[in-house]
Amino acid sequence: LNTALATTETVAQGPLGAVAQKSLGLLSYQEIRDHRVAFYADDLPAGEYEYSYVARATTPGRFLRPAARAEAMYRPDVYGTSSIDEVTVQ
């Protein structure tokens, strides 16, 4: 959900942990679309990062959240990935 839009309801994510707070400070841009979310950082030193977003569930069932991928823009051989998670909507 892009909460920057006037037509989007406000949704509380709850408190952010220390890793998420540190990670947000490194963002230079974020892009929230209907089909994907992208976060951009000019510099991302080696380490652990946590970014979160809010999605609206509209169809019940079991789904896979694809793995996130982070890569250097001009060095695609430098990258990291997250796990694939199963999401159940009731």
Q: What's the topology here?
A:
Elements: H1 18-24, E1 29-32, E2 37-40, E3 61-65, E4 69-72, E5 75-81, E6 85-89
Antiparallel strand pairs: 1-2, 3-6, 4-5
Could you explain the architecture of this structure?
It is a single chain. With 90 residues, the protein is mainly beta. The protein is 8% helix and 32% strand. It contains 1 helix and 6 strands. The protein has one helix at 18-24, and strands at 29-32, 37-40, 61-65, 69-72, 75-81, 85-89.
Structure keywords:
single chain; 90 residues; mainly beta; two-stranded antiparallel ribbon; 1 helix; 32% strand; globular
Number of strands: 6
State the low-pLDDT regions, or none. Answer: none
Strand order of the largest sheet: 1-2
Assembly type of the chains comes to single chain
Please state the overall shape, judged from the principal axes of the Cα atoms. globular
Cα distance spanning the termini: 19 Å
Secondary-structure element order, N to C:
HEEEEEE
Could you tell me the mean pLDDT? 85
The major beta sheet can be summarized as:
2 strands, antiparallel
Sheet/helix structural class: mainly beta
- Total helix count? 1
